[in-house]
Amino acid sequence: MAEETRSTCPYCGVGCGVLIQTEGARITGVRGDPAHPANFGRLCTKGSTLHLTAAPAIAGQARLLAPARRPARGAETQAIGWDEALDEAAERFARVIAEDGPDAVGFYLSGQLLTEDYYVFNKLAKGLVGTNNLDTNSRLCMSSAVAGYKKTLGADAPPACYDDVKDAGCLFIAGSNAAWAHPIFFRRIEDAKRANPAMKIVVADPRRTDTAEFADLHLPLQPGSDVMLFHAMLHVMLREGWADEAFIAAHTQGFEALRDTVRDCTPERAGEVCGLPVADIVQAARLFATGGSGDAARRAPTLSLYCMGLNQSSHGTDKNAALIGLHLATGQIGRPGAGPFSLTGQPNAMGGREVGGLSNLLPAHRDMANAAHRAEVAAFWGVPAIPATPGLSAIEMFRAAAEGRVRALWIACTNPAQSMPDQALVRRALERCEFVVLQEAYATTATAAFADLLLPATTWGEKDGTVTNSERRISRVRPAVPAPGEARHDWAIAADFGQRLQARLALRGVAPPRPELLLYHSPEQVWNEHRATTAGRDLDITGLSYALLDQLGPQQWPMPAGQPAGTPRLYQDGVFATPDGRARFSAEPWRPLAETRDADWPYALNTGRLRDQWHGMSRTGTLGRLFGHVAEPALQMAPHDMAREGLAAGDLVDVASRRGSAVLPVQPDATLAPAQTFVAMHWGEEFLGGRDARGQALAGVNALTTPAFCPTSKQPELKHAAVRIRRLALP
Ligand code: SF4
């Protein structure tokens, strides 16, 4: 008799509810949860095939089922027991900490971990070890959105919700191909347009994606020119009297500086920088300011939706802040259908932010740089202090490992040897690092080859805890089947390791014994501790227990004790999360890309998602049917550029950046502008002949991408690298 377990899809930040069907200890099917407010029963191609990735014949080949040690670099791994594995890990970490201090170790996590996993790791690093060197692949995904919200609205809190799509008169979509990256959310956009054909959709994206194809106005701007576009739109709004001066006066600060910044950002100048017709910039400003009505006296709501095109940039914070500034300048925030709404890439990047799972954050949206916040967390955890030394962000941590400053790395649920930019740097770091632990569900990732110790973790269908989706909605993740082999839950591995580590640190006299610090017996116990840290904070969820989540279903934070349900929309009273309640404008000017094109490196390389694949394909790559949409990696180029280079479809080309090269078949894409190219981010070992500058083998598009990052958010510029392309002469 089949049973159904209510849980959440582990792929993207839409956070769809799923019902997992099981027979005994076997997952046999999956269907969308009709009661889940994120998807109301719908699932995309990835979500609807989840059960197939869990089939024993597939999972058995790919899964890591027992702890394993690699006796020497390059050698085969040997299975060992959990006690032996965790004792060795604790001993090696304790030795490094005793010799070189806590900042000689680092933890690199994932937006696919559950909130409870994240909380325990964060406490392990910042509370027990005493290092802020804890970062995550969310740094590659959402950290510019975090910095943009904090800089302008005062808190890392997306103010809108999915329901706002149907109330909007104008959707302004920037740097997001939601049709592929957030498919079930995009269904809402299609539904809203069907129900209200007068709704206007503007898409700013260098590529004519499926999302852009759906728009009333597509702005195919040059890569990296977003801030200039937004400033020119504000210039037009001010010139035409479309700004909301009353809202600016009552609810904001710093507008005069921004007014000065945009004074010379005329649509004519922006037209040149962005490569757009002046009339389209003016039209975009009109639609945004008036909510699609065309008349500021009949202002309808505008909702902006944005993602990696803004975030993955060497000035990602400026892009986010400039777009949020357009909402503040026009009063397009705090009411149904209006607001700046960042779409989260990963299933739990939000939950990780909530518990402070970045090197600059502490639990419940507290800041590492704030002494009072550090003292609050230290008191809560019962430790003498949280270290004041800033932690290393993702790129900084791997750079430090490549230089020998970080000697031991703990990597959980992510694949930096493929997914981080400048793969050559990351692989050098993993080679140089004395001790690399990889806690993973899959044994097949590129990073596994560098690990000294592999620890098997549970995954979707087995895990128990919570995740938060793009609209701040917290959903339960529930186990439908027992853990396979010797796999354990991520939080439990971290807690067990922490117990062993604290004993060794105490033996060495490095720290007092703290056996109680990570003494957890269930994810609910971790959840309740996390809830308590949020009391009085902007994301207060003191009222949200597991029992209430079971009873009410998924809820949006904040939900303080006594509040009967979650909070769909923020700032409806016009009071923002800043000390004086006023939102802040950012007056940063447009700045060029980190790496500009020139005669030697004449093409722009853009990267992004495919509709039917997820990240490094550990899971989706196990299913043949998910290759039906796109079967193999390719460099996409404008037909005009291909003709100029003497290339035909399918020709093999050597694509090189300053950091490495890759060999790929080339395919024409008539939607690309001249000198722009695109490669999907997912492919790894399927790449042909990738090499770094020293000739070492690399795999995937990140052989080419740059580690340059935004100085505020530290998010790298994965969306642009300057490359050259040569036809490969075959022997
Ligand atoms: Fe899963 Fe995202 Fe697809 Fe929903 S849209 S089913 S969360 S991959």
TrEMBL record:
Domain 4Fe-4S Mo/W bis-MGD-type: 2-58
Cofactor(s) listed: [4Fe-4S] cluster; Mo-bis(molybdopterin guanine dinucleotide)
A GO BP entry: nitrate assimilation
Alphabetized UniProt keyword annotations: 4Fe-4S, Iron, Iron-sulfur, Metal-binding, Molybdenum, Nitrate assimilation, Oxidoreductase
GO MF annotation, one: metal ion binding
GO cellular component terms, semicolon-separated: membrane; oxidoreductase complex
Keyword Metal-binding appears in the UniProt entry: yes
Family: Belongs to the prokaryotic molybdopterin-containing oxidoreductase family. NasA/NapA/NarB subfamily.
Name this polypeptide is given: Nitrate reductase
Lineage of source species: Bacteria, Pseudomonadati, Pseudomonadota, Betaproteobacteria, Burkholderiales
